[in-house]
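The instructor's notes for this session suggest beginning with a concrete chain rather than abstract definitions. Hand out the sequence below and ask the class to guess, before any prediction is shown, which regions might be ordered.
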Amino acid sequence: MAKTLHTEADKKRALFLAFLTIFLDLLGFGIIIPIQPFFAESFGASPTLVTVLGGSYSLMQFLFAPFWGRLSDRIGRRPIILMSVFVAMIGHVLFSVTSSLAMLFVARMIAGFGNANLGTAQAIVSDTTDSSSRAKGMGLIGMAFGLGFVFGPALGGFLGSTYGVRAPSIAAAVLQGLNLLLAFWLLPETRDPSREVAVHGRRAPLSLAAFRRAIRHEGVGSLFSITLVATLAFAMMEQTIGLLVQAIWVTPLGLDLDASTRLAAKLTGYCLIVVGVTATVVQGGLIGPLVKRLGERRLIRISLWVLVIALATVPLFAETGRFPVFLLSGALLAIGSGLLTPSTNSLISKSIGEDEQGGVLGLNQSLSSLGRVLGPLVAGALFEYSRAAPFLTGALILVIVGLFARRLGAPARTAA
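After discussion, reveal the predicted structure:
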């Protein structure tokens, strides 16, 4: 029987271990990012197929984030973390041995299914925090993402440029195995076993009925919409940034395929390191004080406009041909995203009942994943038309959602 929570010390331990688990999860994911576009290109993938590959991973997260979250409401957080990490490990193993583009898609979809556990991790935060510390706790999950993007792309860029494009996926599988062992031995159960899940918990977690139940809570529908559109815009950038780096700084050098792939992976890794370091500072140290001073609603509005400016400057800074200048846009992107995600999750968590945390946060994560599906579906085609188009299109749709966010109201429920 897994240890459950009894004291404040147990809650802090659970929160730290949830952070550690998600950090290792995201570290394995971050390792793949610098080499994924160029690995797909080695199998003959066009820019459109390269971005669709990223979308296939997120499609599985869209479909199964509510499944994992809802199931965690019923049987507990710990077994869901263990099962999902194991599945992700299998996906990374398959990615490392694939010999075709089709198998590459299968491997990423399996990994996406396993890594659809963010809603469960957020539920652990909700289980172990009160309303006054909820945003800070959600920021820790964001900090785990940030640290994953600091060390993951750096390690992936090094392994890919030194040992070839398959090495990062092998390392990712090893990290998932380590994650599984640590979670098995150290992660306690955080869900109160005495709490009965509502009858609707037995219904399908990803359905129109589930969304209708969720948006009955004041403000949740608006927050869901912001999550979807903002993630779509960010994903358009995320899936084409490597292609932009390759087009500006690698292709003109006329290197052979292996050398150009390794250089592109290294430079893409540098970009993502800047994003990760900045996001870590924002979500790990600044989000708590900023929420207390400004509140979640105001931070959401500010972060959306920061993202608009950041996306618009990506192609402008790239065309200067100066890589350090280009990295500034990555820092702006991290600031906007680092403020937006934990503020949105915190406001949702404060608006729903205690027995719905895993399911509703899983639905929100599912919408985030849907944005990461829809964005890549058009990003590659836009990039083929114009390498600035994905970034400017993302900025434009964020202007719309930024105006929409002005109507965002306060949560109807304040958790104890």
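Then share the key points. The chain has one domain: 8-189+205-407. The domain at 8-189+205-407 is CATH 1.20.1250.20 (Growth Hormone; Chain: A;).
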